[in-house]
Design brief:
Layout: H1 2-38
Length: about 40
């Protein structure tokens, strides 16, 4: 059971890292579009 928890925690942390990267990309893309929209 302990190993299952370890694997679950690793998968969860990997998903969190991926989510953070995706959020960063989305935020930067939205910022670029916002600047283009203003000008």
């Amino acid at each position: 059971e302990i190993r299952v928890l370890e694997v679950a925690l690793r998968l969860w942390s990997v998903q969190g890292a991926m989510g953070a990267k995706i959020r960063t990309v989305v935020n930067s893309t939205l910022a670029i579009f916002a600047e283009l929209w203003v000008f």
